[in-house]
Amino acid sequence: MTIADEGSGKPARTRRQIYEDGLRKRSLMIAGTSTVAVVLAIVLLVPLAPGWAAVKKSFFNWDVFSATFPKLLDAFLIDVMIFAWCAPAIAVLGLLIALARDVRNPALYPLRIFSAAFTDVFRGVPVVLTVYLIGFGIPGLGLPRPWNSPYIWGSLALILTYSAYVAEIFRSGIESIHPSQRAAAESLGLSRRDTMWYVILPQAVRRVVPANMNMLIALQKDVALLSFIGPVEIFRQAGVFKSLYANFTPYVGAAVIFLAITIPATRYADYLMAKQRRDRS
Amino acid sequence: MTRLIVAGALALMGTTAVAGGHLCYEGKTLTEGKLTIATGNPAYYPWVMDDAPESGKGFEAAVAYAVAEEMGLSAENVVWVRTSFDEAIQPGAKNFDINMQQYSITPERDQMVDFSEPYYAAPMAALAVGAVSETEATLDALKGLKWGAVGSTTGAQKLINTIQPSSDPLFYNDNNDVIAAMQAGQIDAALFDLPTALYLSAVVLDGGTILGQFPADRADTPDLFGMLMEEGNPLKECVDAAIMSLTESGELAAIEAEWLQDTTGVPLIQ
Fold first, then answer.
1. What is the DSSP string of A255-277?
2. What tens digit of pLDDT does each residue of B143-181 get?
């Protein structure tokens, strides 16, 4: 075997490199061919199914799509709004619950019990149920307007449920910091609170950023659950159009809008996780 | 067991066929000799009494049996199944011949599924609770209320197109959720078809009042209830013929008077 690239100034490639390049090229070829084959099979075979025309008319109806999409976009603003005030509240409450779980003072033991019970209850109950119970139940006690708004109580339901999850994430972050850090901080004379605030939390929070990104993505979709108690956000708006046109295309339109947000967010979370793995190794 | 039923059905069909010559529905139903009718889960008063359509009690149950009889099917050959709205409009094979759950006929829906001739013209009515029960039955006075409706009904459309409330209306999954929101004071009033509104105000909602009804003929989309069928269902002509003949003979009006008699006497919204 001759060695390539002799006059080009680049370092000459070894036989091993050439062999590995060949392998790589071959696997790329195979991956490409199989992907194209699968895509072609889907594109060519699905329309051959006897019900394809009906499915296409019901789910991928361009007329219905173009008639409803602008209004769906408008309705999505309500989702964004609810998300915008829920996310910070969840971060704060989740952190507080996690800290309560870590309290070492015996006198504050009830606080630990409370935070454990909180996470157990709100992680255990389906979100929709919490939304119903809080969204209809608390205003039913006789609150005057505007304090009985479904936006307020529905958001609270989301905040409670999600902060239970986020609290567990923060707790795992706090527990993942080696005990020697705590010991070292205390031996330097830092108080318990300062140890937590200046030593443990900065490391713990950074460590759980990717996990919390996933919670953000999940929250962004679950905001649609508020439609159960009244707000006409994108999911409800799509449902109204579905009934009007007897056609599921508006749901596809809503899915497109959700994907436009969640796919970049998911990729970003992946990137953060990969970065973290690199930094640690 | 199935063979027995089929044999029995064939025997029955034999007798009716002899009596009436060739019958329109033959070979067009899901199960030969049976008419499979879908209703809601649960089915509500006064459309179906006690969620038991088999009893023939309630307006839609009574109409169903009358239509079946008109088509030449005896009561025991009527089979009931339950579907949601979404199941009724999904593409693909259906588990019913006809679906009756207060479907309003709209041109948009008609492109996706088939509707029979209308069996009822439903006026829309406004149900209110609490302090706003005294609101005048005029469009101007109604605009200022906080409105709700079931999102999948034509009531939601009417709310936006006709009443045009000054604050955003809230939409819900079903009647019970609307009632819960009214009880929680989150909405003042909601739009239903008149018989449903009457039932809710009389039985379910404490302190509920009917503000008024929209005259069915003045509506921009008159709310006519039709039986829903799969697009292109050959049974449509048989069902249509049966409903037409029931309308002409006055039997349909008699069923309506029997089950929905309270629907008159509610003030019209000006």
1. HHHHHHHHHHHHHHHHHHHHHHH
2. 889 999 999 888 888 888 888 899 889 999 988 899 999
**B91 near A CB under 8 A:** yes
Cα separations in angstroms, B8 against B18, B23, B34, B74? 16, 18, 11, 13
Superfamily of domain A62-280: MetI-like (1.10.3720.10)
Q: Kindly list the residues from chain B whose CB atom is less than 8 angstroms away from the CB atom of residue A245.
A: 108-109, 111-112
When pLDDT is cut at 50, 70 and 90, the band that residue B13 belongs to is very low
ipTM confidence: 0.76
Q: Where are the beta strands (DSSP E) in A63-126?
A: none
The span from the CA of A128 to the CA of A135, in Å, is 10
Interface test with B, best of A74, A151, A243, A247 (most B CBs within 10 A): A243
CB < 8 Å to A145, chain B: 146, 185
User: Mean of the pLDDT values across residues B208-225?
Assistant: 74
Nearest CA in chain B to A133: B180
User: What residues have CB less than 8 Å from A183, skipping those under 6 apart?
Assistant: none
Structural domains in chain B, sorted by start: 2-120+225-261 (3.40.190.10), 123-214 (3.40.190.10)
